[in-house]
Amino acid sequence: MCSEVFNGCLQDHKPLLAVIESSHYLTEQTWQDLHLNSVLGEPLQVKSFLMHPCGREELLARQRIFAAIRESEDDSAYKSMVACRGALFTLRRSLDIWKDARTFVEQTYLFVEVLQAYLAAWQSLKALHGGGRLQEVAFHFQNIDDAPLSNAIEKAQAIMERISHAHLSYGDRQWTFTTAEAQDSGTLFEELSACSEKLGLQFAVKERSPIYPDPYVSEAFRSLYKRDFKQLEQILKPFSQVNFEELLDYIPSLDFYLQMENFYRQAEKRGLVRCIPVISDEKQFCLQEMYDFTLLSSDAPSIVPNPTFFTSEDPFFFLVGANGGGKTTYLRAIGCNLVLLMAGCPIMAQSGVGYPFTSVQTHYPSDERFSGMGRLDDEQRRVSEMLDGQETDGFYLLNETFGGANHEKGFALAMNLAERMHNEGLFGLFVTHFHQVIGKAFPVLSVGTTADELDENEQSHSEVHHSRTYRVSYAGAKAYSYAEDILRKYGMDRQSLRARLASEEET
Known about the structure:
507 residues, 12% strand, elongated
């Protein structure tokens, strides 16, 4: 296998596991408002993918990989991705060390190590297990013969084994001398040993020294084995132009999938559930038993799930309820699960159907000191900027906006904003303490304790943890079954989801 074959199969044609699309992105402020940094902020690859919502094709491709990871027998897909990531990191370390080589001898020896790491990474990509893009990547690398590279490594190692060496040290100085002739006649090793004893020197017992040998000694070593190094050069030359860095392109996407999968597994240990949402052609976001998973970073004894009700008929809601009743938690749960859906990830809910919105924008009260304006002026400015630069497929989350104004003015501004969002068909949730919104032209959700509504098992669970349980309900005539009907329409059980993914993959 020559370098031309390698480069030809990789440069423009290798399939990737995930692609970051830069046309849409979340703001850092939204990321912080939703508290995503509390549970997903540290893994940089996770953040970079979640901050960029993807298009429908990319979204569905990622869903297939997450489905393969979860449903593969004996965890084979997950294990193959872990092994692949480890091999690619070894390749990256080998490349870094090789680039620091100072002499021809060092470069030659380290280049063989690079080729070994490259072959191992190549084989790990061939061994990826699962459907969708996992299978595409595996097939791509399986279709190229790696025997020539494997044979070249084997020949190079055989020559390198013929070239043995010894170390002489004195203080902080070290030199490399050959002992190959010693294996044949024994004379050179004996002479070196005798000389070292007369000089009071010792042979180093370490296989490798942290101090590089002197370049002049290294060149002498090369001259001594001129024929062997010439053979090594001829064996390795066909691979000298290979772009080894290209395989490293898989590291970010592998990190993304593996770190997210590890997050889901930890969440499930806390009693949360996940599902792969059905992607709808119609604008909607209807979930059954949705969780605010950012509470995993707190000491909350239990995390209560809630439904969502957003459709093209009712794209915008007010949310009212007592202070401390869970309104912000519900708002955050919507935003966080939207971010997951838009990135092609499973959501933290029992089941769901959603449209691939292109952005989530948040408006939270600002605690900063305002220069030349009050809080109300600042809120009006920020709301105006957010809506004036609106995206057609955006989703807006407003938390106590205009709450700093007097009651009458704040309520009027809230209604004007709701009217604008309704007229423009924008999707969003407006958390407010203005209870007068109930009975107006816009649908209203309410948050309250559900001790009287819980069944016996749920009540027992709540009492054990000594915590109040809050549930969201429709404040109007519609009820929780409204969302259930929509979910049932899309067949949300696992069997129907698997059939849908298979059908989309075929098309």
